[in-house]
Design goal:
10 helices, 4-stranded antiparallel β-sheet, alpha+beta, about 40% helix, two-stranded antiparallel ribbon
């Protein structure tokens, strides 16, 4: 309870910093127009706090009418719970401390002693593993399969100690476990892809340092790609699909980080992460810009 907040306002804080906020109307229901219904409801217009969907706070008397009209209706408490759940996913990399990672490794010693002794302290440090786990969490990849993650790290740590490069190798190993969340139906993923010539051009513009991976492209190409991605991502969302791009593993990380500030909800997968038995169906191809063909 805080005098800084309005009567129906709430905030989520992490170490004193506001990471999310919203407002609810206790005693009312939030009706979200997820189907594009033309029926207008009586109530207080608002935006759903997580995904920004057009919504209306309605009374219990209008709830059945809203459901018949195709609206998704939830109570005020569920709005807060959903917002908290999504916020926790977003700030998970900030919550994961080095001590937490050490605790996770310690708990593995009894069940996987050979794996832990192979990795620590000769191959990698706890700090490197922390960075790898942060990278996974930042893109919504679960880290509960820690033995699988550490086995992949052990396989490639002889080649590189760069957390970003190790993270990409881990993602390939974990693909079987996390790409299923993007299937629109069992065994099928619908995606946006890039023209092979465009993808090769982008790969040639990747710059790597010890600390980051950068996609160095000129403003006109960046603007073209952002426009094309935005249009195709919106089309997928309107169809009830996850906005998802699939590229080669060499480009994936640089591509994701370049467009993340503008399109934070755009999922970028590598072809090598998707299990062979899963069909990839292209719903849009971004071609080479006309002025560069």
């Amino acid at each position: 309870d805080s005098i800084d907040l309005e009567a129906n306002q709430y905030r989520f804080l992490l170490r004193g910093k506001i990471v999310a906020s919203g407002s609810i109307m206790p005693g009312r229901w939030l009706a979200m127009n997820v189907t594009g219904s033309k029926v207008e409801l009586r109530g207080v217009p608002t935006k759903e706090p997580v995904f920004g969907i057009d919504a209306v706070w309605i009374t219990d008397e209008d709830r059945r009418e809203a459901e018949f009209a195709g609206y998704s209706v939830v109570d005020a408490l569920s709005v807060i719970i959903t917002h908290l759940s999504e916020t926790l996913k977003q700030v998970a990399p900030m919550i994961l401390t080095r001590q937490e990672v050490q605790n996770m490794i310690d708990s593995l010693k009894s069940s996987h002693p050979a794996l832990v002794s192979e990795l620590f302290p000769d191959l990698v440090t706890v700090g490197v593993v922390q960075r790898i786990l942060e990278n996974l969490l930042r893109e919504g990849v679960p880290i509960k399969n820690l033995p699988v993650i550490l086995e992949a790290v052990a396989d490639y740590a002889h080649v590189t100690k760069n957390p970003d490069e190790l993270s990409e190798q881990v993602r390939k190993r974990l693909g079987l476990y996390f790409t299923g969340q993007y299937e629109c139906e069992p065994g099928l993923i619908k995606v946006i892809t890039l023209d092979p010539r465009l993808e090769q051009t982008l790969v040639s513009r990747i710059q790597k340092t010890h600390f980051e991976v950068i996609l160095s492209i000129d403003p006109s190409l960046a603007q073209y790609l952002l426009k094309e991605l935005t249009e195709r991502a919106n089309f997928m969302i309107e169809q009830g699909l996850q906005a998802l791009v699939v590229v080669g593993s060499e480009l994936r990380l640089a591509f994701k980080r370049f467009f993340e500030p503008s399109l934070p909800r755009l999922v970028v997968l590598a072809f090598q992460e998707i299990p062979p038995q899963v069909e990839i169906q292209t719903v849009g191809i971004i071609m080479m810009p006309p002025n560069q063909q």
